[in-house]
Amino acid sequence: MRRNSPVIRLDDADNVVVARSEIVQGTLVGDEDVTTLHDVPAGHKIATRAMAKGDAVLKYNTVIGYASEDTEPGSWMHSHNVLFDNVDKDYAFCRDYQPSDILPESERAQFMGIKRADGRVATRNYIGIFVTVNCSATVARKIAAYFDEERLEDYPNVDGVIPFVHETGCGMEMTGEPMDILHRTLAGYIRHPNLAGALVCALGCERNNLGRFFEDTGLAAGKALKSLTMQDVGGTAAAIAEGKAMIREMLEEANNVTREPCSAEHIAIGLQCGGSDGFSGLSANPALGKAMDILVRHGGTAVLSETTELYGVEHTLTARAATPEVGQTIVDRMNWWLEYTVGTDTQINGQVSPGNNAGGIANVIEKSLGGAKKGGSSGFMAAYKYAEPIEERGLVFMDSPGFDPVSATGQIAGGANLVCFTTGRGSCYGSYPSPTIKLASNTPMFEKMSGDMDINCGPVIDGTATLDQMGAVIFQAILDIASGAPSKSEALGVGEDEFAPWAYGVQA
């Protein structure tokens, strides 16, 4: 990426380059010896070679679509002339897998974490209030709201009392995958190392029955896990009063923690991208991938998800799978999504969001190409269903929708104790109990939205930093925020409403 060039060439084999900033019609791009035939927005593509109708359009030496018409060098290449179509794939299970070079324990980076009695390590220390059904959501919110900063002054080691409410729990199947997903998600949060205690609020007559939920997930009430049922205690006001008393009982024990040096092997990162642009796959995503390669070498875990936004490049993931079974799971979940979305105008069928499109992404394959780079170059050690407990360290895959709050909710339920979220257009996402670190793909957006962005990856586009340098910056920020430094979204209090368990299946 030559700093003085108006375009970025990603591979010698590519027949397009990316505009570093807006380029007007008639501009000679000297490095490529082409003159632009149209105005080209920042982050969008320019043809550098003549293409006949049907020729493959190559970015990162990967097919992102096909020319829909005969195209001259200098043409603006976008969704109007890049045809989305199926790409031939060789899954080549395990062909490119290489074991990660894990550092000895004595050489691994450390952060200031909170050690739990079961050996797990937390990056935060919250008490959570959960609901079995949306009917008890108000009770959970009012209990949590009572424990404001003033009432928590005597408990400085408790980061907060957070309500985790959702819109389901009734009017749905009592058995099957939809209820299993809800159970896995709620139980994963309740057991999360970032929670020192939890209260579960029920109405009493919901299909997500409180007793069955505890039984099916192996949860048991105790000092750090309590429950109440509104219909049993006398209604809304009585439930709020009783819930407050239960939280008070937990606070002393929850406050009895200290941070101490812990190995980076205990850090698990949920990888997200949203509000992507044409620079996301050139700066923030691959820089985050470099940071994840560092984390994996230090024994930590990175979780790549958003299955529908990996369509078209899944063969590059299966080739890095540690076992054929891991690779086949990725293929099976992709095939499930293809069947699930037949006849719809969702992303997996080519239609990216208006914001993605305006930012320079022509179709889902181009978005997937950039999104996959968040995972770096390590091998995939395991593949999980949504919200399943993550037991393997290293780079893993978790099936999820592409909708960021839903996807990140599954990752946190699986055990992610931090989330790294790249954005080019400016997503303002946050999360509890695992804080989100937001990475901007370009300098103008970072400067415009500095109140929400934690890290500017724009220097990669500007030509003042390499991906390796940026990856090192990101890794250090991960250690700092894991140690207790607030992320931007955390300081803003963003994340309570972003708890969004995946709801699919029959609801009636």
Topology:
Layout: E1 7-8, E2 16-19, E3 28-29, E4 34-35, E5 45-47, E6 56-59, E7 62-67, E8 76-77, E9 82-83, E10 110-115, E11 121-122, E12 126-131, H1 137-146, E13 160-164, H2 177-190, E14 195-202, H3 210-217, E15 225-229, H4 230-233, H5 236-255, E16 260-263, E17 268-273, H6 284-297, E18 301-304, H7 314-318, H8 324-340, H9 354-358, H10 364-371, E19 380-384, E20 394-398, H11 404-414, E21 418-423, E22 436-440, H12 443-448, E23 455-456, H13 458-462, H14 467-482, H15 488-492
Parallel strand pairs: 12-13, 12-14, 14-15, 17-18, 17-21, 18-20, 19-20, 21-22, 22-23
Antiparallel strand pairs: 1-2, 2-5, 3-4, 5-8, 6-7, 7-9, 10-11, 10-16
Helix pairs in contact: 1-5, 2-11, 6-14
Distance between the termini: 54 Å
**Which stretches are poorly predicted, pLDDT < 50 over at least 5 residues?**
none
Instruction: Provide the number of structural domains.
Output: 3
- The averaged pLDDT comes out at 96
> So how many helices?
15
Tally the beta strands: 23
- The proportion of strand residues reads 15-25%
Residue share in helices? 25-40%
What is the CA-based Rg, rounded?
Answer: 24 Å
Structural class: alpha/beta
Which sheet architecture does the biggest sheet show?
Answer: 7 strands, parallel
Overall shape: globular
The largest sheet has its strands arranged as 19-20-18-17-21-22-23
